[in-house]
Amino acid sequence: MHHFLNYQGGSTGALLFHSPSLGKPTRRRQRIEWPWIRSLRRNNTCYDLGSHAEVLLADGLWLRYKRFILMNASVRRAFMPTWANNECWGERILSRVTNEVKSMVWATDSEGLGVSLHPPPTSPRHDEWMEILFSHAEDFPRPADYETSDPDWVEKGLSQCFANRFRAVEVEIAATGIVLGAGKKVDVLLSKYQTSLDHSVARFCEPLGPWDPQGEGAYDGASIHPYETIVIKTNRGISPKTIENLSKWADHR
Questions:
Q1: 3-state class of 111 per DSSP?
Q2: % residues pLDDT > 90 (the chain)
Q3: Quick one: DSSP state of residue 105?
Q4: Helices 127-134 and 165-181 meet at what angle, rounded to 10?
Q5: Residue 109, number of CB atoms within 10 A of its CB
Q6: For residues 99 and 89, what is the distance between their CA atoms, to the nearest angstrom?
Q7: Rounded to whole angstroms, how far apart are CA atoms 183 and 139?
């Protein structure tokens, strides 16, 4: 993070990192004096992507930048092998965003973010994916007011405040459809996706089954390695000893 923020000083990109403790003053933060860093302390509202949208939409902040990486506190550092020491992890992710590809996990450019904040009328409903979510009733019970055939339905995208985890996850699920509905493409770093036929989202997602690969043993019987994705969620129990060791070793590089 230190390297990326220092490197990004002369760029047109914005790294938005959301953490419950990020706005609290600490001795470490007081040593960060780069003029291009903005620390915003705000109420703990608008779950996950909603908090990003709230900050980005305030005073038209998102219009001042060309590239974006959105992260929250469950995402752990940037993991890069030693042979890639001269590469910036942020640039490596952002390099996948092109004129055609507008979503690289939560890295995008101004056009892609604009589509996500203000979806086009062509954005499809995402009922099939929501049914997969509802199959995990313990974590995501079906809301009593959920409708699958609302004639007045309009995709709102990121430009709203999410009151709970369910609403935030619903928009995360819708995000791919929003980008595809705008006639653009999505991309991920996973080798399984990169080797799928035609890089088809449907062909890639269907074999994954009813849940996502971000879990211990959920990636074709194995676990995602952080070197494959550069960053990794640490609240899914994925290879905790590997994450611990790589974090420790990276601190000494």
A1: helix
A2: 19
A3: T
A4: 150
A5: 21
A6: 20
A7: 32
Q: Among residues 157, 208, 204, which one has the least CA distance to residue 178? A: 157
Question: At a CB cut-off of 8 Å and minimum separation 6, what does 240 contact?
Answer: none
Pairing mode, strands 13-18 and 67-72: parallel
For residue range 111-146, list pLDDT tens digits in order: 999 999 999 888 888 787 788 778 878 878 888 878
pLDDT for the residue numbered 112 = 94
Q: Give the Cβ contact number of residue 22 at 10 Å.
A: 15
pLDDT given at position 239: 93
Q: Do 172 and 61 contact (CB within 8 A), yes or no?
A: no
- Is-contact 48 18, C-beta < 8 A? yes
pTM, whole model, 2 decimals?
A: 0.80
User: Which residue would you say has higher pLDDT here, 37 or 234?
Assistant: 234
What are the structure tokens assigned to 62, written together? 């998102």
Give the three-class secondary structure for 107.
strand
Both tokens assigned to 111:
């056009």
Can you give the pLDDT at residue 28?
47
Picking from 56, 87, 49, the residue whose alpha carbon sits closest to that of residue 71 is 49
Half-sphere exposure in the Cβ direction for 78 (13 Å, CA) = 21
Mean of all residue pLDDT scores within the chain: 80
Q: Which of 197, 237, 244 is nearest to 219 (CA)?
A: 237
Query: Tell me: the pLDDT tens digits for 170-202?
Result: 888 888 889 988 999 888 888 887 877 666 666
Q: Report the relative pairing of strands 75-76 and 232-233 from DSSP bridges.
A: antiparallel
Q: Which strand ranges, in their side-by-side order, compose the sheet holding 67-72? A: 13-18, 67-72, 107-109, 101-104, 185-187
